[in-house]
Amino acid sequence: MTTLLSRSAILLPLLLLFAAFNLSSCDSFIGVNYGVIADNLPPPSATAKLLQSTAIEKVRLYGTDPAIVKALAHTDIGIVIGTANSDIPSLASEPGAAKSWIDSNVIPFYPASKIILITVGNEVLTFGDQNLQNQLLPAMQNLQDALNSASLGGKIKVSTVHAMAVLGQSEPPSSGSFKPELTTNLKGLLEFNDANASPFAINPYPYFAYTSDPRPDTLAFCLFQPNSGRVDSNTKIKYMNMFDAQVDSVRSALNSMGFKNVEIVVAETGWPYKGDTNEVGASIENAKAYNGNLIAHLRSMSGTPLMPGKPVDTYLFALYDEDLKPGTTSERSFGLFKPDLTMTYDIGLSSQNSTKSVSVQSPTSAPTAAPTTTTTPSQGFVWCVPKAGLTDAQLQGNLNYACGHGIDCGPIKAGGACFQPDTLEAHAAYAMNLYYQTAGRDPKNCDFSNTATLTSTAPSYNNCFLNTSNANVNDPRVNNSSHVSMSGVGPTRHLIDTFEWLFFIGLVYL
Ligand SMILES: *[C@@H]1O[C@H](CO)[C@@H](O)[C@H](O)[C@H]1NC(C)=O
Ligand SMILES: *[C@@H]1O[C@H](CO)[C@@H](O)[C@H](O)[C@H]1NC(C)=O
Ligand SMILES: *[C@@H]1O[C@H](CO)[C@@H](O)[C@H](O)[C@H]1NC(C)=O
Ligand SMILES: *[C@@H]1O[C@H](CO)[C@@H](O)[C@H](O)[C@H]1NC(C)=O
């Protein structure tokens, strides 16, 4: 958290401003896994339409189903295709097999279908087959060579996907390291990733961490809910959620092998909404909390403590339930959408939600087509504040949670512009409100385990809660920001809303 707190006050608004352009309808870092071990899935064309109505920008297929790859043509959705583990031996031993794999699975579809990555096998290093492990790198190399000779090297990357079980140690995150028996193979694979600028793809599942440690505070930690956090004793970084802790343990493991530049991609993560009676934690509420809060966390652009400021590319597991999968009920219950294309539960993936996550959603503002000024704050502004009578522990928990989720708490640190009054309540109110405003002004972002409430009266602790009913005429800071009013950009109403909102964030910071 130290890194989050020390971030420049100016950087975040700029970052959000930048993000607003990228997020106008999609979030480039949000992907989804499209598994097809099922007999009730909608046709690929319907799925392509569904995806286009969401903020999902990338899809990972486990295979190369041409009907799906074709259906995604001209959608601008990035596509990850994969070779089966059973393809690896021939791909490794015969360059010709790799060439014909590319010739049949890539060339006919690219670039209309935006294939971005080929994953060679799935979780091979933890599959328990030493021969296959040894063949993985040669298979990847042959596919890379085949891409290069088709002049697609660099345009389409080659990698493989690992289970978290490649780590021998993951706690605390700074001590993350790979299993010693895998490091020989991993070194070769990582040199490949490094040389070809391809990502290290891995499948962290806080859900599985929870099932092996089902304490209430572990659940809150896994679901990005208010919790007391876990301090990494080496770095003194306080982790507020399991996802960041897991991803940073991978970062540490990569760094310790000298691969600081190899990027991490989360190839799978998710939470089942249903399970057998003995499957603790598998419920709609938890699945919605995990996936919804994960999306909000990624959109906050906070990154992880070891990789601040940049959300890790994340493929949610999964688009649909796979009803033919063997095993426990939870294995068949990860789907975000039902076969009839409706949401299993709403986590804000609709493309309408993604702009709103950084824009003003004002319930009472008139939908003016061409506002004359972009600095006029909306009517009906609401603030998120702590409920009366909270304990210090509750206030501190909320403060920690909010400050651990991508907002800049520098202004409430000693010497900061909003430090006075130096009370826990005022500091918590500042952080909670900023979290609510930043995370998308959805009432669910002002819940804090039922310890927060929305109010239409500006909190009176200090002037860090702008009184928007008069800010635009009396507050010089508003006038000072108007140089970024984007005149000339010709923004749509949507964009103007976004910038209005960005001004607000900017004002709070500046
Ligand atoms: C997403 O947007 C829709 C339509 O505006 C809204 O009904 C829904 O509540 C939003 N969902 C989330 C999670 O924000
Ligand atoms: C906000 O400004 C209005 C108009 O100046 C004033 O009447 C009101 O008391 C202010 N509210 C707060 C909470 O400062
Ligand atoms: C801010 O700009 C408005 C409109 O241009 C003006 O009426 C107001 O006096 C300005 N406020 C300050 C503090 O300069
Ligand atoms: C607003 O701009 C004026 C003139 O550039 C400057 O003197 C003043 O300090 C600024 N106020 C704030 C709050 O940034």
UniProtKB/TrEMBL annotation:
GO molecular function, one term: glucan endo-1,3-beta-D-glucosidase activity
Ranges where the X8 domain occurs: 382-466
Reaction(s) the record says it catalyses: Hydrolysis of (1->3)-beta-D-glucosidic linkages in (1->3)-beta-D-glucans
Compartments reported by the entry: Secreted
EC number: 3.2.1.39
Feature: compositional bias, Low complexity: 362-376
Pfam family, one: X8
Class of enzymatic activity (EC top level): hydrolase
Sequence segments annotated as region (Disordered): 355-376
GO CC annotation: extracellular region
Coiled-coil stretches: none
Annotated signal peptide: 1-26
Subcellular location, principal: secreted
The keyword Disulfide bond is assigned to this record: yes
Keywords for the protein's UniProt record, in alphabetical order: Disulfide bond, Glycosidase, Hydrolase, Secreted, Signal
ATP-binding found in the keyword field: no
A biological process from GO: carbohydrate metabolic process
Recorded family membership: Belongs to the glycosyl hydrolase 17 family.
The name this protein goes by in its record: glucan endo-1,3-beta-D-glucosidase
Organism (species): Acacia crassicarpa (northern wattle)
Lineage of producing organism: Eukaryota, Viridiplantae, Streptophyta, Embryophyta, Tracheophyta
